[in-house]
Design brief:
CATH class of the largest domain: Alpha Beta
Helix content: 40-55%
Strand content: 5-15%
Number of domains: 2
Radius of gyration: 20 Å
Number of helices: 12
Strand order of the largest sheet: 2-1-3-4
CATH topology of the largest domain: Rossmann fold
Number of strands: 8
CATH architecture of the largest domain: 3-Layer(aba) Sandwich
């Protein structure tokens, strides 16, 4: 019987591969992987090592996946990819648009939201699943299986790298548990729901008005009443920290940020893509550490 991970790969392969000759890569050639963002591109490098060639479509902190417009070089990379990693959940729909217009359709497509077990049609879905370590462990295992399918001769490397990656994720989860043991129930606020999976795993209570974070995420205006409610949380010191998305700025988020600084609320900057010079694990370690230090301050 196939494991759930293997079954997913088999199902994807059956629905996309036109012939068996496409199921293995040419000897000595790296497996071409295209990821929607450099977050998933880095995870692919950590699992694939020297046996993969990775292209990350969004790799600039100033690029917004919600407003990305296809570039010819990325379209070409997608057409040559053996494995494609997308976030799903409406976050990076451009991948599917580009993929369906590509000449080649035999790539294995890994959708992180689907792999996480969440329902992409859920109106309450928080699509930022890369901040959820159990989901990234599932993704890494699924990715290892996809790479083994493309390059069976490197199976040992892929499995060992996935196991090492999972062990480091377990360390991050242990750090979250330590925070939860000390600070469970402490109130926090966010400008967007980007880091909520991490904050919730730390046992923290998101007190942000839903209408505020939704408006910021969608790029629509924040109603004055909602902004005042958000500012009241900060000014009344009803939250211990503000998680602030550095990649999205608006007059409303700037007001909230200024209020946090003025009232001694710790600010934890977060991003949607990898900061320069970091890999996924070092980035997430820094995020967990920042939350811990903010709560202790």
């Amino acid at each position: 019987m196939l494991t759930p991970v293997a079954a997913l790969i088999a199902l994807t392969a059956c629905s996309s591969n036109s012939n068996d000759s496409a199921s293995t890569t040419a000897a000595g050639q790296p497996v071409r992987v295209v990821a929607s963002t450099n977050v998933y591109g880095d995870i692919a490098r950590q699992i694939g090592g020297d046996h993969v060639q990775v292209t990350s479509i969004i790799n600039d902190p100033n690029q917004d996946p919600h407003s990305y417009q296809a570039a010819p070089q990325n379209q070409l990379a997608l057409s040559k990819a053996r494995v494609i990693i997308e976030n799903g959940g409406g976050y990076d729909d451009f991948v599917d648009v580009m993929r369906h217009s590509a000449a080649r359709h035999d790539a294995v497509v890994l959708n992180a939201v689907d792999i996480s077990g969440r329902n992409p049609a859920d109106p309450e879905l928080n699509e930022h699943v890369w901040y959820d370590f159990p989901s990234m462990r599932k993704l890494s295992a699924t990715l290892a299986d996809a790479l083994i399918q493309a390059d069976p001769g490197s199976a040992g490397t892929f499995r060992a790298n996935a196991a090492a990656f999972a062990a480091k994720l377990a360390g991050l989860e242990k750090s979250e548990a330590a925070i939860r043991a000390k600070f469970a129930g402490v109130g926090v606020a966010v400008t967007e729901p980007v880091p909520l999976y991490l904050l919730e795993a730390c046992g923290l209570d998101n007190r942000t008005p839903a209408a505020f974070s939704h408006a910021i995420e969608e790029g629509t205006g924040v109603p004055p009443r909602t902004l005042n409610e958000m500012l009241g949380l900060i000014e009344g010191q009803k939250v211990a920290l503000l998680a602030y998305n550095e990649q999205t700025s608006s007059p409303e988020t700037e007001k909230v940020l200024d209020a946090a600084r003025q009232h001694g609320i710790a600010v934890v900057p977060v991003t949607e893509t990898l900061p320069p010079g970091q890999d996924y694990l070092s980035w997430m370690t820094a995020n967990v550490t920042a939350v811990d230090e903010a709560l202790r301050s």
